[in-house]
Design brief:
globular; binds protoporphyrin IX containing FE; alpha+beta; Uridine Diphospho-n-acetylenolpyruvylglucosamine Reductase, domain 2; five-stranded mixed β-sheet; three-stranded mixed β-sheet
């Protein structure tokens, strides 16, 4: 596609279902420029990572072109990575085209403008990289739904146990050192919870394939190398620049990955039986997918979400925490037990989780390639998109669209409690689809959408069943490697914990 900054043209001769039947807005070419070859990529990368930072990079484009749909290079880009040209969708209306798999192809776009080598995943393309038109998409997603369904009875008890172990450790660290590592605690307890509930084994259980205490660091090394070309990990700038310029070979983490794979292949035979017998999947391919699902999608996603939860709650003050505690405790009833029904009754907890996901979508970008010539509508204009062009959505700005949410940059934990909640939830789209819709075998919405909400609610509930409030200390580092610490964890004073 040619770069263009033209702004308008006459009403369109094109017809498209994305146009409303009553209003025919003028059709624009998408504004923006990819710049000169290589130089444009380098300049956009410099602004994105160093000079402006991610959010200001997009806001400045929106101001410059007076448009929420813009052309720009998305990292990492040539010469050593593929074509970086993308059309970015930065409002809650235009981003919706990405959820419509009849309009966009989702093949190999999970990570963005490039795809990490399949060496990282045993030579197989993992489920998130498959388009629903590929036959394996339905069998692998069905397998994923099956794992969630069959593990469901273990979620509450295993979460309770894993949380209690982490909290005992936090309490001990606070007593000994005056601070406790929230980050390390979450890394361990989420992995323990996932392995115990989904494959019924402890990651550090003794045995030839045991991950011992190394699980989180092994997974981190493997995921970081796949993400670093387009995400700042908070490493020193020269190292990041290098990693964002040349693809890093898998061999650097092959030992780590093999260890994780052996753990799953040895211990999840009963789950792989289901993959083979019920879904006709190859055992090895199923095992790489199981590993990806637990370690990349879920563990990785939760390591991004868990810090946001405590940071947002901490910033809302202690009196808000007292309200959360009341919401939790009045829902569990006399015996203090957490049940699914009790979680459902926690209206403030639920709304708080939606609001955290709205403000800090853990996976901020989604992409799709136009299957045909399209018209995409924003609030202000309609844009001509050509077949084959790469569309990208930046959830963080789209979910702060002032046309969708009042005071969009303010954390308002009660936002989803009013009569308007259902309408507002249609614009909460962190899962690659509206919160009011469900993942299916035919769409590309996150298979774990409801599970993620449940995990976040269970965490807040367990927190306030044990503590009255917490306070965080200063956060060191940035991005996914930031370290969060508790400075205060006030045990419950009413004697019920
Ligand atoms: C896809 C986010 C946790 C399984 C996705 C997508 C997003 C997402 C944005 C769409 C990607 C795209 O279209 O490019 C997250 C976040 C999570 C999380 C932020 C945690 C905080 C989970 C969990 C599971 C899961 C818990 C399952 C147990 C999947 C699968 C896909 C997917 C299988 C691919 C769906 C498909 O191919 O149709 N996730 N996810 N995710 N997610 Fe999640």
């Amino acid at each position: 596609p040619s770069s263009s900054s033209s702004s308008s043209s006459s009403p369109s001769p094109l017809s498209s279902s994305t146009l409303s039947p009553t209003v025919v807005p003028s059709i624009r070419e998408v504004p923006g420029s990819y710049g000169a070859p290589l130089l444009g990529v380098a300049l956009d990368k410099l602004n994105y990572f160093v000079v402006q930072g991610r959010d200001e990079f997009f806001y400045s484009l929106m101001r410059r072109y007076q448009s929420t749909v813009v052309r720009v290079n998305m990292p990492p880009g040539p010469p050593f990575f593929p074509d970086s040209r993308a059309i970015m969708l930065l409002d809650h209306k235009s981003i919706r085209v990405l959820f419509d798999t009849s309009k966009v192809e989702k093949r190999d776009v999970f990570a963005g403008t490039y795809m990490p080598s399949t060496d990282f995943t045993g030579g197989f393309r993992m489920l998130p990289y498959l388009d629903p038109s590929e036959p394996k998409h339905a069998s692998l997603k069905g397998f994923c739904f099956d794992i969630l369904r069959s593990s469901a009875p273990r979620f509450l008890p295993e979460f309770h146990t894993a949380f209690r172990e982490a909290a005992d450790e936090w309490d001990a660290q606070l007593l000994a050192k005056g601070e406790a590592s929230y980050t390390a605690g979450c890394q361990n307890f989420v992995l323990c919870f996932l392995c115990r509930s989904m494959i019924e084994i402890d990651p550090s259980a003794p045995g030839p394939a045991s991950l011992a205490e190394q699980g989180p660091s092994l997974i981190q090394a493997w995921t970081a190398l796949q993400l670093v070309p387009q995400t700042s990990l908070g490493l020193p700038t020269p190292i990041e620049v290098l990693l964002q310029t040349f693809p890093v070979p898998y061999t650097l983490v092959s030992n780590q990955y093999n260890k994780i794979y052996q753990f799953f292949f040895t211990n999840a035979q009963h789950v792989l039986d289901i993959a083979e017998q019920k879904y006709g999947l190859d055992r090895e391919e199923a095992c790489h997918n199981l590993l990806f699902l637990i370690c990349f999608n879920t563990w990785g996603g939760m390591q991004l979400l868990m810090p946001s939860i405590v940071r947002r709650i901490d910033s809302a003050g202690v009196s808000f925490q007292r309200e959360l505690a009341r919401d939790v405790r009045s829902a569990v009833g006399e015996d203090g037990r957490l049940t699914m029904a009790a979680l459902e009754r926690m209206k403030l907890v639920k709304s708080t989780v939606y609001e955290v996901l709205r403000m800090d979508p853990p996976v901020p970008f989604q992409y799709g390639r136009a299957k045909e010539d399209l018209i995409v509508e924003s609030h202000d204009a309609s844009y001509r998109i050509r077949k084959g062009e790469l569309l990208g959505g930046y959830q963080k700005i789209a979910m702060r669209d002032p046309k969708a949410f009042q005071f969009p940059d303010t954390f308002m934990p009660r936002r989803f409690m009013g009569p308007d909640a259902e309408r507002l939830l249609q614009n909460v789209t962190w899962s690659n689809g509206p919160e009011t819709e469900d993942p299916t075998l035919n769409n590309k919405q996150c298979a774990g959408k409801d599970f993620v909400n449940m995990l976040a609610r269970m965490f807040i509930a367990e927190l306030y069943l044990r503590y009255d409030f917490f306070k965080l200390g200063p956060i060191s580092g940035s991005g996914p490697t930031a370290q969060y610490k508790f400075k205060v964890l006030q045990r419950r004073r009413d004697g019920s914990s």
